[in-house]
Amino acid sequence: MSDNSHADDTAHTGPIKNPKQLLITVFFAFVAPIFIIIGVAHYITSANLPAAGAVNTEKLADARIQKVGTVEILDATQAAAALAQQASAAASAAAAPASGVAVAAATPAALPADAGEKRYKETCFACHATGVAGAPKFGDKAAWAPRIATGMDTLIAKAISGLNAMPPRGGSNASDAEIKATVEYMVNASK
Predict the structure, then answer these.
(1) Could you write out the DSSP letters of every residue in 106-145?
(2) Which CATH number fits domain 115-189: 1.10.760.10, 3.40.50.300, 3.40.50.1400, 1.10.3720.10?
(3) Rounded CA separation 113/184 (Å)
(4) Beta bridge partners of 166
(5) 136 touches 178 (CB < 8 A)
(6) pLDDT tens, 62-116?
(7) Residues 97, 102, 108, 109: what is their CA dihedral angle, to the nearest 10 degrees?
């Protein structure tokens, strides 16, 4: 007859033996993590905020979007008094600088001797070293001669205001004195 050797084998069983254990396993495997995630999310998002209406939000919003300046209309006597008060406040502030800091003179500070060369190497060389967009090359006497003939004032004015593809001030934030020093440096190299 046939050999029934599998009859005495026990059936393959897992750790879950009854429906109660199955329900507990399902709960802890699926439902409990969902509640834990919801609890953590609530904890993270519920910062220590004041109660609704406790803060004057309209006043805060108005402060954030207020106009930069205001206009005050006064009669002639009030306006004169206000101007005198502002002038005296400005004069006293200029006369006594805060914490010993010297007030800058109205004339600009003298530029270092290499200011023109430095500005050329920072900004101008990008076009004038290679002749990009028709820019006269640095040191090219033939290209610079007609420009030099127009005069230094014209060259400086065009460098400040921009010319053809060159943006104003060569695309930098250089002062007029720095532009003048840079133009002089470039012209001297092309004479």
Answers:
(1) SSPPPPPTTHHHHHIIIIIHHHHTTTGGGPPPTT-HHHHH
(2) 1.10.760.10
(3) 12
(4) 163
(5) no
(6) 888 888 777 778 777 777 777 788 777 777 666 555 444 444 433 455 777 777 8
(7) -170
d(CA 9, CA 16): 19
- H/E segment holding residue 81: helix 76-95
| Nearest CA among 178, 164, 180 for reference residue 122 | 178
pTM of the model: 0.42
Tokens standing for residue 5: 């050797």
**Would you kindly state where each structural domain of the chain is located, as residue ranges?**
115-189
Contact call for residues 164 and 134 (beta carbons, < 8 A): yes
Q: What is the pLDDT of residues 154-163, one digit of tens each?
A: 888 888 888 8
Structure token pair of residue 18:
């009854």
Residues facing 163 on adjacent strands: 166
SS3 category, 24: helix
CA atoms within 13 A on the CB side of 122: 15
- Taken in order 184, 185, 190, 191, the sign of the CA dihedral is positive
Contact 190, 138 (CB under 8 A): yes
Enumerate residues 6+ apart whose C-beta is below 8 A from 147: 136, 155
